[in-house]
Amino acid sequence: ILRILRLLRQGTHIGIVTAAGYTDGAKYYERLHGLLDAVANAVTEKDFEDPKVIILGGESNYLFEFDFHTEKFLKFVARDIWMLDEMRTWQEEDIQSLLDVAEDALRECISNMQLSAEILRKDRAVGIIPVTGPENKKFNREQLEETVLVTQQVLDLSTPGKKIPFCAFNGGNDVFVDIGDKSWGVLSCQRYLGGIDGSKTLHVGDQFLSAGANDFK
Fold it and tell me: How far is 163 from 156, CA to CA, in rounded Å?
C-alpha cells in the first residue's frame, strides 16, 4: 500500500483489474478496504487531491472509480462511458448464448468428475463453486484445470465463442468463464484514464497457472 501511495503522489494512475465481478462497490471495499482507506486518509491529509484509482471487475465488465465523497469511496461508472468501441459490437444475445454453452460444459464436468459443485450464473459470467454446507470440500488442482481446459475447448469450437471474447480460468477453488478478459480490462483502463500508451503501462499480474492463465493475455 505504501508503494502505491508513493506512486499516486508522483501522479501515477492505478487501475486494478480483477476477476471478481460485482455491481456493488461495497463488495470491492470488503476486498480492498486497506488500500481505499489509506488513499482516503492521504486525501484528508492533503498528500494529494484527486488520486486516479479505478477498479475494473469481472475481468472487463464493471468499473468503479475512487471518490472521496462517496460511500465506501467507490463510484460506479456506467459501461457506456468506458467501453471500447470493439466491445460495443458484442451483442447481448451472443453473450448470453456463450454463457449458456459454458454452463452446459461446466455441468458436464460436474457430472463426469462427480464434483461436489454448484453453478453460479451472473449477467456476464458463469462458474462452479463448492457446494455450500458442512461437507463442502476444496477442489484439487487437477479437477480445476481439467474443467478449465474442457470448457475452454468447448467454447472455442462453439459459434458464440467465435464471436465474443471470453476467459476461462482457475480461481483457486472455483472455475469461471467471464465475458472478455484482462487484456480487454487493461485496454479499457488505459482509455478511461486518458488514453495511456502501452509503453507507459506496467501490468503486475498474479494469474500465471498452466491452465486458465488470464494474465498471459
Answer: 10
SS3 38: helix
Tell me the CA distances in angstroms from 114 to 62, 143, 157, 165, one per residue in order: 33, 10, 24, 29
CA distance 210 to 133: 30
pLDDT digits (tens, 9 = 90+) for 136-191: 678 999 999 999 999 999 999 999 999 999 999 998 899 999 999 999 999 999 99
User: Distance (Å, rounded) from C-alpha 217 to C-alpha 215?
Assistant: 5
DSSP codes joined into one string, 120-148: EE-SSEEEEEEPPSTT--PPPHHHHHHHH
Global pTM exceeds 0.90: no
